[in-house]
Amino acid sequence: MIEKVLLALSGTGQTRDMLKMLMDIPLFQRANVTILHVVPPQVTAEGMTEKLEAGGKMLAQAVQDLNLEPHRISPILQQGDPKDVVCRVAEEVDTDLIIMGSRGLKRIQAILENSVSQYVFQLSSRPMLLVNDDTYVKKINRIMVALDKSESAKQSLKLAISLIRDVKNGQLVLVHTNPDLKLKPGEITANPEADPVLIPAISEAKKLGINYKCIAPEGKPGERICQVAEALNVDLLVIGSPDRRPSIAKGLPDLDRLLGQSLSDYVRVYANCPVLLVR
After folding, report:
1. What are the UspA domain coordinates in residue numbering (predicted)?
2. Cα 134 to chain center, whole Å?
């Protein structure tokens, strides 16, 4: 159950629209929402005053747009480094989901440009829904989940099913990519119903009466996942993002994954739809 949502409001992108679409899904209809806007340090007192006033207006507009019962929405305006504040507030409110905008910066560029979403993506243990600034947000009817044998993939499937099971005319797209599979040119599936990774997911979908489609493409997983998402015009992509860093590195960004070694990092940059990263 999604009971607490943290919307990190930057003033750009379509995160508010994304949250409004989610609120149409039964799983979210009782959720409480914290809207956070962070004002970074300013050079002058006048500059800080101006930014705080603008932030207050932005929060007020977001509250009005979401149109939730007053007891279900909590606007927060804070000063500080947005990266640190988002992570801290996510822990303080014990959120079940963080929603953030993203510029979709690639690899080293995200480090050099001090990307807030990249930082939070690396260091938060909470599920995150990233919405690239140039992504068109749609009503959620088709949810795709990328599967493998990992525990985070199992959690991804569980959440995807919870999201889609009560959506009228919804469809669950199950995808498992195999980099070693050899197919004929143009062929994108090799009897996906028999794929051992997909079989448990198919069984669960059938048991719950969920309309599903399964695909088992060959090739590089990141590229193929993004290609399938675009080809099928999915509205939301769910993928596991396991935290593999040792405890000693919790306070530091994982440079290997920042540099593009992570499947979930590749997908969050290149997918043409909102991406839900499950820890």
Report:
1. 1-131, 141-279
2. 15
**Per-residue pLDDT at 201 exceeds 70:** yes
Given a cut of 70, whether residue 249 has pLDDT beyond it is: no
Q: What is the CATH number of domain 4-132?
A: 3.40.50.620
**CB 187, CB 232: distance < 8 Å:** no
Cα 130 to Cα 264: distance, rounded to the nearest angstrom = 11
> Can you give the residue ranges of every domain in the chain?
4-132, 142-274
Look-up of token digits 């930082």: 119
d(CA 266, CA 139): 24
Residues in Cβ contact with 69 at an 8 Å cutoff, skipping those fewer than 6 apart:
none
State the CB neighbour count (10 A cutoff) for residue 29: 11
Rounded to 5 degrees, φ, ψ at 146 are -90, 125
Give the pTM. 0.87
